[in-house]
Design goal:
Length: about 200
């Protein structure tokens, strides 16, 4: 069974519709650890030792957050700056994360078509996420395709509930080794894992 860690970050969760529903839907899943960074560290004073221990205990590390200003909320950057230490996460002796999988789970207000050269945001989401991909590479991890929920500003409550249940289903498949993590970097979106043919899943 794969051990999945979700580092959750939303600085205004009380105002959220989508991320709040995602969080509610996945809470309590056996084998899935939810680490709410703003709940643990409201003053951004991150406990590096605690965070490193969590990373060491898990196989798949997902950063779940709204797609703020083409990136992540501030605490994610703070977490990366402090926790992914030289000599532990990267560098000649930094092998603590070697072989793990790392990825983003994001909600974006705009539709996918707006993240194209002719769209208002001009570039695909994947290009904005390149710093996370390179971070994974430097830390000897595999960067998984992002799990993206587009167009959240136009979603009604039923759309949101459906999206949340699909996300839960994907996490349970990962946990139960019914999705081979090695397939994730080859996908365009992690969402596609729900449609993977059986031969790409672990038996």
């Amino acid at each position: 069974m794969a051990r999945v860690l979700i580092n959750f970050a939303h600085p205004a969760l009380e105002k959220s519709r989508v991320q709040k529903q995602l969080l509610t839907t996945i809470k309590g899943i056996k084998g899935i650890t939810i680490n709410d960074l703003y709940e643990w560290y409201p003053d951004l004073d991150i406990d590096v030792a605690r965070e490193q221990q969590l990373l060491e205990k898990h196989d798949i590390i997902l950063l779940q957050h709204p797609f703020y200003w083409y990136s992540a909320p501030a605490i994610i950057k703070q977490w990366m700056d402090l926790v992914l230490e030289h000599g532990w996460a990267y560098g000649h002796t930094g092998k603590a994360l070697q072989g793990k999988y790392f990825g983003n789970v994001i909600s974006a207000g705009s539709g996918e078509k707006n993240y194209q050269p002719e769209g208002i945001h001009r570039y695909p989401v994947h290009q904005f996420l390149l710093p996370f991909s390179q971070t994974a590479a430097l830390c000897n991890m595999q960067y998984a395709a992002p799990y993206v929920i587009y167009g959240v500003h136009r979603m009604d409550i039923e759309d949101i509930r459906t999206a949340a249940q699909q996300y839960r289903n994907m996490l349970e498949l990962l946990r139960d080794d019914k999705i081979d993590p090695a397939a994730l970097p080859r996908l365009t979106y992690m969402n596609e894992a729900l449609q993977l043919p059986s031969q790409t899943r672990s038996v």
